[in-house]
C-alpha cells in the first residue's frame, strides 16, 4: 500500500458517485466504504501516491457538481503498515 485516500460525505448516494469517479479517474482500488452514522460515509481507496491524489481530487469535484456535502478528504502517502488493520480488506 503506497497511499490511502479518504473522502467523507453526508449521504450514501453521493459517496458512491464519488467512488465511481475516483476509480475511473486514476488507477486506484476501493478498500472500504464506512457508514459512520448521522449520514456520514467515508470512501477509502488505495494506490500509488500520484493516483490516489488524482482520485481524491476527482472525487471532491463530484460534490461541486451534485451539490452534495463534502465533509472531509485526505491523502496519506506511505501509511504505516499497521494502518491497514483498521480496514476490512
Automatic annotation (TrEMBL):
Sequence ranges assigned to domain BMC in this UniProt record: 3-88
Key words of the record: Bacterial microcompartment
Stated name of the protein: Carboxysome shell protein
InterPro entries reported for this sequence: BMC_dom (IPR000249), BMC_shell (IPR050575), CcmK-like_sf (IPR037233), CcmK/CsoS1_BMC (IPR044872)
DNA repair in keyword set: no
Keyword Ribosomal protein found: no
An example Gene Ontology CC term for this record: bacterial microcompartment
Entry superkingdom: Bacteria
SUPFAM superfamilies assigned to the protein according to its UniProt record, in alphabetical order: CcmK-like
PROSITE patterns on file: BMC_2
Pfam families: BMC (PF00936)
Main localization category: other
Family, similarity comment: Belongs to the bacterial microcompartments protein family.
Subcellular location: Bacterial microcompartment
Organism listed in the record: Thermoflavimicrobium daqui
Amino acid at each position: 500500500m503506497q497511499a490511502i485516500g479518504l473522502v467523507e460525505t453526508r449521504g450514501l448516494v453521493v459517496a458512491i458517485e464519488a467512488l465511481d469517479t475516483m476509480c475511473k479517474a486514476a488507477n486506484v482500488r476501493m478498500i472500504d466504504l464506512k457508514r459512520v452514522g448521522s449520514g456520514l460515509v467515508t470512501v477509502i481507496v488505495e494506490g500509488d501516491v500520484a493516483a490516489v491524489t488524482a482520485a481524491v481530487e476527482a472525487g471532491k469535484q463530484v460534490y461541486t457538481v451534485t451539490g452534495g456535502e463534502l465533509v472531509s478528504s485526505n491523502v496519506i502517502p506511505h501509511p504505516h503498515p499497521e494502518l491497514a488493520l483498521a480496514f476490512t480488506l
